[in-house]
Amino acid sequence: MENSNIHLVKAAFHTQFKSAMESCGVSADYYFKRVNLPTEVSDPESLLPVKPLYQLANIVAIDEHIPDFGSRVAQLTPWHKVLSLGPLIQASADLEHLLEKFCEIATSQSSSVLFTLKDEGSSFSFCYTNSLFFKGDIQMELYRITSMVQLVQLATGIQWRPETVRLEMPRIEIADACPLLTKSDIAFSQPDSAITIQRNLLELPVHLDIPASLTTDKNIQADLYIKFDDAIDQIIKTYSITKNTSIEEIARVADTSVRTLQRRLKDKGLKFNDLLNRAKFIHAKQQLRDTQLSIKAISESLGYSDPAHFSRAFQRWSGFSPSNFRKGLSRIS
User: 172: how many CB neighbours lie within 10 A of its CB?
Assistant: First the structure.
């Protein structure tokens, strides 16, 4: 049965995985292209399909013989340092508030996640309870469980380890490659991923310092689980800034066929080229307004081989040439 929705993730996590690959001496561009992800993203708040990111973690771990790659991604860039996430949890006074806030806003970062903090009597469990088609993925489970431990360490210090850990994955040696789990009692093949936290630890203050440059006043979308056509629109906006995006590429990353993509857009009264042109127009206006890039550079960033083609397109979209549009902005300011 065809999926009616596409699961999305904030592009800030693209940077997290890119940094990990570069740290391991791996060609990030090669692997991003291999799973049909853009090699660069300019806006951490833009959206990407999440499934290729899961595929990426597995491919890099296997091909590059890095059994703990998922854990390494988290260790090198903890969640509180991810640009789209850190500012949202910076006001947490204590560990309980931090974890409750994280569980609340997690779906604003990725539509494929669900975290909860469960009171289990003598202790609490910080749980990942998702049951979507990503369930049981070993590398991403190592990534998540490492990240969850690191969140708790913001209050307890880096020496803290959970007494018990539940993992969805079967008993496997790869789990031994995760340094934050070596001192924990691990139960495998469980219905969820979870770490136990002693009740008294939840009162500890959180030591979280987010630089002012990373704070945000943007309105945060509560849930990235959005309609198919809106998801396609968001993906096109992200991909169109890096190259001359084709409908074939968007169909691949959306995990559907070109024919199905065209049909579903048509059902909504939409056309792929119209969405692509609108995305390019948005990017072009932003770069003309907020940067000093030349018209040629902006043209190339949007996939145009000839600046004249870009100028004619921009004239159709706005009624102004790019240079006149920029001059008009300078007069207003």
Answer: 12
pTM: 0.83
Tell me which of 1.10.10.60, 3.30.420.40, 2.40.50.100, 3.90.550.10 is the CATH number of domain 229-332. Answer: 1.10.10.60
pLDDT digits (tens, 9 = 90+) for 169-219: 888 877 777 778 888 999 999 988 999 999 999 999 998 876 555 555 454
CA-nearest of 87, 53, 31, 76 to 208 is 87
Per-residue pLDDT tens digits for 230-240: 888 888 888 88
For the domain spanning 8-205, the CATH number is: 3.90.1520
